[in-house]
Amino acid sequence: MYRVGRKVLGVLATVARSERALMAEVLAPRQGNAVLRRQVARVRHEPTERAWFAALSASGCASQRVCTRSTGAPRRSHIDIYVWRHPMAADLEQGTARAAQGMHFDASLDCWVVDGYAEAVAVMREPALEIPLLPLPAAHLADSEQATLTPLWKQAMDTPLYSSGKAHRRLRAQLRGPFTHDAVDRWRPTIRRVADAAIDACTPCGKLEVIEDVAGPLLRQVMAEVVGIPQDRRAEFDLLANASMDAGKLATPQWSSAVLVEAARAVEQLGDLVHDLLGRADELPTGSVLARAAARRGADGGLSESELATNVRSLYTSGVYTTVFLVASAAYLLFCDEDVLREARRDDTVIRGVVHETLRYACPAVETNIRRATRDISIGMQTIRRGQFVRTAVLYANRDPQRFDAPDLFDHRRPSQGPSLAYGVGPHVCLGNHLATAVAEEVLRALAQPRRDVRLDTPHPTFHRRAAIPVMWGPDRVHLKLGPN
Fold first, then answer.
1. Chunked in runs of 10, what are the mean pLDDT values of the chain (485 residues)?
2. How far apart are the C-alpha atoms of 313 and 114, rounded to whole Å?
3. Longest alpha-carbon distance in the chain
C-alpha cells in the first residue's frame, strides 16, 4: 500500500523567495522490510538565480522512521528521502514505476536533469561538461562582503574539482599519492587502531553515537595524518579549517558578516601554517600530501604554497564532512538488520558488501556538482546546447531499474551490476574514494566485533541535506548500545 505525505516545504528564501517546493513521497512496505522509495519535489525559482539554486538548493530534506515488530525490535530500515525532482509526482503518488527517461530538460529549473545510470556515467565522463565556479550572487552581498569573499571564492580554481584539462591533470598527479589503493592499505591499521580506541573509550558508559564519538574524531585524526599535519598542530589546524569552511554558509540562515570575517582570517592563517610546516619537513607524517610536496619543492610542475594550502584545507574538510555520512549510514544499515549483523559477526568480509551497497542504496551524494556545456554535445538521444546547465541526481541514478535489479532493496550480497556513482566516474572521480571506503569498512568491522555486542539504540536517525554542503545527504545521529543485553 502506498501513501502520500508532506505537501509543501519552503525553498531558501534568499534563492526562491515567494516560490515553493511541492513534495510527494511513496512508501513501499515489503514483507519483512520497509524499503526506501524515491520521492519528488518540483521546485520553481527565478531563472536569473538558477546557478545559485543549483549550488545551494536545500529544498530537499528527509525524516527517518523505523518500522518495528510488536516486540519493538527494529526491522529493515525505512528512510524517507526528499530530493528536488522533475514532474513525475503524479505517477509516483499512484504507485506506478518511474518512467525510464534517463534525462530531460526541466523548464522550471532551466537545466537538464539526469537521473538514469547510463546517462549519468556519460555526463560525468564528458570533457565538454565542465564544473564551473559559479559567480557570487552580488544581490545578496554588501560591497565589503563581496570584496572579502571574491579572493576566497577564486581559490577554488586551484583544486581538482574546479579545474580541467592540463591544469586538472597536474593537480591530481601532485595530490594522488596518499590516496592510491596501496597507500590506503597502509593507512588501514591506523584507521582500525583509532576506531578501536574511540569505541573502547565509550564502553564504560554502555553507549555511543557514531558520528560524534567515532567517525568524526577518527576522520579528523586520519585526514590530518593524510594531508600532513603534525600532532602538535592538529587542534589549531582543525579550528582554522572549520572556520574557513563556514564561507560555504552563504545564502543560509547561518550566514553573517562576522562569519565571513572569521573565514577570511582562518584562510590567511592556514596559509601561514602550511608555510611553517613546509620548513619542518622532517616532522611531517610520512607519505602525507605535505611530506610529498616538501620532497618535491622546486621541481617543475610542483604545487605552490598557495595551491598546497588551498588543497590541504579542501581535502581535509571534504574528507571529514562527507565521509561521516557514509560511515553513519552504513552503520545504521548494518545494525538495523539483525540477520545482516549476525552474518557480519561470523564473517567480517560481509562488511565490504554492506559498505558498497550503502554507497548505492543510501548514496551520501544526492547529486554531483552542477555542470555546464562548453559546446553542443549529445548524450543518448538528447542534445545539450552550449551554455546549458546539467544536474545529475546520483541518488536516483544509483536506483535506476534499467541498471539494478530490485533497486529499492538493500542487498549486501548484490551481484555487481556496475559501480555506485557515489564517488563519480571519469576525470573528476573522487580523489579520496579508496580512503573513504576503507574508513567505513574499518569502523564497521570494529563495531561489529562480537565481544562488543553493539546494538542499535534510540532515537533513530534523521536523514537530510546539509546547509553548507547541499549536495550531501545523511543522518544526523546514529545511536548504539554497547555491552550485554
1. 32 27 22 26 30 33 29 36 31 34 88 94 96 80 87 90 93 96 95 97 95 97 97 96 84 81 94 96 95 89 93 95 94 94 94 96 86 95 95 91 92 90 94 97 97 92 71 87 81
2. 31
3. 68
Q: Which of 198, 210, 219, 216 is nearest to 315 (CA)?
A: 219
> Do β-strands 64-68 and 377-379 pair in parallel, antiparallel, or remain unpaired?
unpaired
At 317, list the grid cell: 574538510
Q: What torsion do the CA atoms of 187, 422, 427, 190 make, to the nearest 10 degrees? A: 0
- Give the Cα separation of 310 and 409 in Å (integer): 40
User: Grid coordinates standing for 280?
Assistant: 619542518
- What is the C-alpha separation between 369 and 130, in angstroms, rounded? 10
Q: Are 298 and 258 in contact (CB under 8 A)?
A: no
Task: Tell me the β-bridge partners of 21.
Answer: 9, 43
- How far is the CA of 380 from the CAs of 123, 132, 260, 352, 422, in angstroms? 10, 23, 43, 33, 22
pLDDT of residue 48: 27
Which pLDDT belongs to residue 17?
27
Q: What is the pLDDT of residue 276?
A: 96
* DSSP labels, 69-91: -TT--EEEEEE-------S-HHH
Question: What's the CA gap between 412 and 355, in Å, rounded?
Answer: 8
What lies within 8 Å, CB to CB, of 259 at 6+ separation is 246, 247, 249
CB 281 within 8 A of CB 294: yes
Q: In 3D, which of 189, 103, 174 has the Cα closest to residue 397?
A: 103
Reference 189, options 222, 213, 143; nearest CA is: 222
Question: Under a CB-based contact definition with an 8 Å cutoff, are residues 66 and 93 in contact?
Answer: no
Decide: helix, strand or coil at residue 115.
Answer: coil
Which residue is listed with cell 600532513? Answer: 228
pLDDT value, residue 471: 73
Residues 405, 50: Cα–Cα separation, whole Å:
35
Angle between the 216-227 and 234-245 helix axes, to the nearest 10 degrees? 100
Q: 303 near 293, Cβ under 8 Å?
A: yes
Q: How far is CA 201 from CA 208, 213, 377, 482, in A?
A: 9, 9, 55, 11
In terms of phi and psi (left: phi > 0; alpha: psi -120 to 50; beta: otherwise), the region of 240 is alpha
Distance of alpha carbon 179 from alpha carbon 289, whole angstroms: 9
